[in-house]
């Protein structure tokens, strides 16, 4: 019987418990299948700090090299550092990480040359199919007796840091004191090199690379995971705090008061800066649960906002299709045309530092013009029947006067004073609710009305 990998091959990546759900033997098959599907003659492979990452990435490299493909190992790296390597070397890439998942998990994020995404519809389903076929007997021999490829090592960290700093000029900013919580993830590897030579006083937190995450889960979108950072920013009298997730492709910002800055406000701020860099024109992508502030700011700065579904594959596809200069998601993923349309939280962080250091006021004051509405954040509800509850909410709001509905991604209801989006999770029996309103009282009213229907 061929293996069933449906539990570990997700919409955008491979992710599962090691060694229960996958191991080095499967990683080797993934390497062979990846080069078969992409037709690559050379690839680049990197990994995070998880205990299982070096062995899994090594096995993947062996599987690829056995089919005649030359492999460049870049070793420890952040996910956006792997995208940099894929972009600058013009090679398909594989990043071994499970992002913010617990230590026993690991995974693979795959991309084609130039950091182009690989998801279910762009090669991942075909990779899974081959691995399942080969899981019994192993990968077949390569036709024509092809010689194995080479496996070499290359350090890309310095090049990655220089590329980012060439895109945002921080040399003339006022000195800033910055607390960075790396969560024992890859930010501890990349931040010191990226910040080197900049007028920044760095206060590091949890920079020791430790894939067991001894201090807190490396997921800064969960409020409990930034409590330490918030306290340290205030204790240090710092100008701001930055928190990175496990593979350091997402970045969350805390202001000088220790208050979290909405990723929508960061999206709007960076969009304004990127539009200015591009002569006041350009397309900016935002997903449908970002704040009303984002398209407003984009238009105010001469740009064209484009709304998409939630998820990095949709953002990246629309970036490529429209030639967009920037894209942002409320999950703190930020995408840049100048970074091969890939997401890099580090580049977004440099934009925030440049904006703050280029004026005299505090960060809270700077971002207030980009944070105009009351937002609920994402509220999850466990439900037995997602479709039934969505239908109930649609029925309740569908006939109401002055409310428009759309189903681009779940259900979005919009009125003059508020909007909400209700989406089903792809992997869990959850409905995810996001609400925004012009004032906190209206927000609370709409939130409670929708939740009463969802949880009925």
From TrEMBL:
<protein>
    <submittedName>
        <fullName>Phosphomannomutase</fullName>
    </submittedName>
</protein>
<dbReference type="InterPro" id="IPR005844">
    <property type="entry name" value="A-D-PHexomutase_a/b/a-I"/>
</dbReference>
<keyword id="KW-0460">Magnesium</keyword>
<comment type="similarity">
    <text>Belongs to the phosphohexose mutase family.</text>
</comment>
<dbReference type="Pfam" id="PF02880">
    <property type="entry name" value="PGM_PMM_III"/>
</dbReference>
<keyword id="KW-0413">Isomerase</keyword>
<feature type="domain" description="Alpha-D-phosphohexomutase C-terminal">
    <location>
        <begin position="378"/>
        <end position="451"/>
    </location>
</feature>
<feature type="domain" description="Alpha-D-phosphohexomutase alpha/beta/alpha">
    <location>
        <begin position="268"/>
        <end position="373"/>
    </location>
</feature>
<dbReference type="GO" id="GO:0046872">
    <property type="term" value="F:metal ion binding"/>
</dbReference>
<dbReference type="InterPro" id="IPR005845">
    <property type="entry name" value="A-D-PHexomutase_a/b/a-II"/>
</dbReference>
<dbReference type="InterPro" id="IPR005841">
    <property type="entry name" value="Alpha-D-phosphohexomutase_SF"/>
</dbReference>
<feature type="domain" description="Alpha-D-phosphohexomutase alpha/beta/alpha">
    <location>
        <begin position="159"/>
        <end position="258"/>
    </location>
</feature>
<dbReference type="InterPro" id="IPR036900">
    <property type="entry name" value="A-D-PHexomutase_C_sf"/>
</dbReference>
<dbReference type="GO" id="GO:0005975">
    <property type="term" value="P:carbohydrate metabolic process"/>
</dbReference>
<dbReference type="Pfam" id="PF00408">
    <property type="entry name" value="PGM_PMM_IV"/>
</dbReference>
<dbReference type="InterPro" id="IPR016055">
    <property type="entry name" value="A-D-PHexomutase_a/b/a-I/II/III"/>
</dbReference>
<dbReference type="InterPro" id="IPR005846">
    <property type="entry name" value="A-D-PHexomutase_a/b/a-III"/>
</dbReference>
<feature type="domain" description="Alpha-D-phosphohexomutase alpha/beta/alpha">
    <location>
        <begin position="8"/>
        <end position="135"/>
    </location>
</feature>
<dbReference type="Pfam" id="PF02879">
    <property type="entry name" value="PGM_PMM_II"/>
</dbReference>
<keyword id="KW-0597">Phosphoprotein</keyword>
<dbReference type="GO" id="GO:0016868">
    <property type="term" value="F:intramolecular phosphotransferase activity"/>
</dbReference>
<dbReference type="InterPro" id="IPR005843">
    <property type="entry name" value="A-D-PHexomutase_C"/>
</dbReference>
<keyword id="KW-0479">Metal-binding</keyword>
<dbReference type="Pfam" id="PF02878">
    <property type="entry name" value="PGM_PMM_I"/>
</dbReference>
């Amino acid at each position: 019987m061929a293996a069933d990998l449906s539990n570990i091959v997700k919409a955008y990546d491979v992710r599962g418990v090691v060694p229960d759900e996958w191991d080095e033997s499967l990683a080797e098959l993934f390497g062979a299948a990846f080069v078969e599907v992409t037709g690559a003659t050379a690839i680049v492979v990197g990994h995070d700090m998880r205990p299982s990452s070096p062995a899994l990435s090594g096995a993947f490299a062996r599987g690829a090299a056995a089919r005649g493909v030359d492999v460049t190992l870049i070793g420890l790296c952040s996910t956006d550092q792997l995208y940099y390597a894929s972009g600058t070397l013009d090679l398909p890439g594989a990043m071994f990480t499970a992002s913010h998942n617990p230590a026993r998990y690991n995974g693979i994020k795959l991309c084609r040359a130039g950091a182009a995404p690989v998801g279910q519809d762009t090669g991942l389903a075909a990779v899974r199919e081959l691995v399942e076929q080969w899981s019994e007997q192993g990968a077949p021999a390569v036709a024509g007796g092809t010689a194995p490829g080479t496996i070499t090592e290359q350090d890309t960290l310095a090049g990655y840091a220089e590329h980012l700093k060439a895109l945002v000029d921080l040399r003339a900013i006022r000195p800033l004191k910055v607390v960075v919580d790396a969560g024992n993830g890859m930010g501890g590897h990349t931040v010191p090199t990226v910040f080197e030579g900049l007028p920044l006083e760095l206060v590091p937190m949890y920079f020791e690379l430790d894939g067991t995450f001894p201090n807190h889960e490396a997921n800064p979108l969960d409020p409990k995971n930034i409590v330490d950072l918030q306290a340290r920013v205030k204790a240090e009298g710092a100008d701001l705090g930055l928190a990175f997730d496990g593979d350091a492709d997402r970045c969350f910002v805390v202001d000088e008061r220790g208050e979290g800055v909405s990723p929508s406000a960061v999206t709007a701020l960076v969009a304004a800066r990127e539009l200015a860099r591009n002569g006041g024109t350009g397309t900016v992508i935002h997903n449908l649960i970002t704040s009303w502030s984002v398209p407003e700011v984009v238009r105010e700065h001469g740009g064209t906002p484009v709304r998409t579904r939630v998820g990095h594959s949709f953002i990246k596809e629309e970036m490529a299709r429209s030639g967009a200069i920037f894209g942002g998601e409320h999950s703190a993923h930020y995408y840049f045309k100048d970074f091969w349309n890939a997401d890099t939280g580090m580049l977004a962080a440099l934009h925030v530092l440049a904006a703050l250091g280029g004026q005299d006021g505090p960060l809270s004051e700077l971002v207030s013009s980009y944070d105009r509405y009351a937002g609920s954040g994402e509220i999850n509800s466990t439900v037995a029947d997602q479709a039934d509850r969505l239908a109930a909410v649609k029925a309740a709001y569908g006939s109401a006067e002055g409310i428009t509905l759309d189903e681009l991604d779940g259900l979005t209801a919009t009125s003059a004073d508020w909007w909400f989006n209700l989406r089903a999770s792809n992997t869990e029996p959850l409905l995810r609710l996001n609400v925004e309103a012009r004032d906190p009282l209206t927000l609370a009213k709409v939130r409670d009305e929708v939740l009463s229907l969802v949880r009925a």
